[in-house]
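input
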Amino acid sequence: MILAVLVAFVVILTPSLRLYIEQRQELSSLQKAVADQKAQNAQLDSDVARWSDPAYIKAQARERLYFVMPGETSFLVIDDQPAVAATDTTPVSTSIQGTKVDWLGALFSSGLNAGLSTQTPEELQQSGTIQ
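output
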């Protein structure tokens, strides 16, 4: 009899508990969305306050649109750096060249030296091991 009551209790309570958990998850996601919208609203309020300042508007007009005040002379320098000519006239090689460095061995020994060293980082830096 007690087992039947427990089974009936679980059968009745399970859908309600599942619905409660789903609603809590939805509430949590909605609260996060509200917090995100409040942060965005604060950012937009800051932008509105900034754009209501005449000095900021003047600075933006000068920077973005290159406006000048009456009586001022504006100079706009385009591409003021001379073109750099290639000074290396060696021909490009068409053959593949192999490297003479054992990078795998160097990597392995570097890891071993770093892991097995008893020196402090300051001592290694003073000895010139660490750049």
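quick obs: The mean pLDDT is 85.
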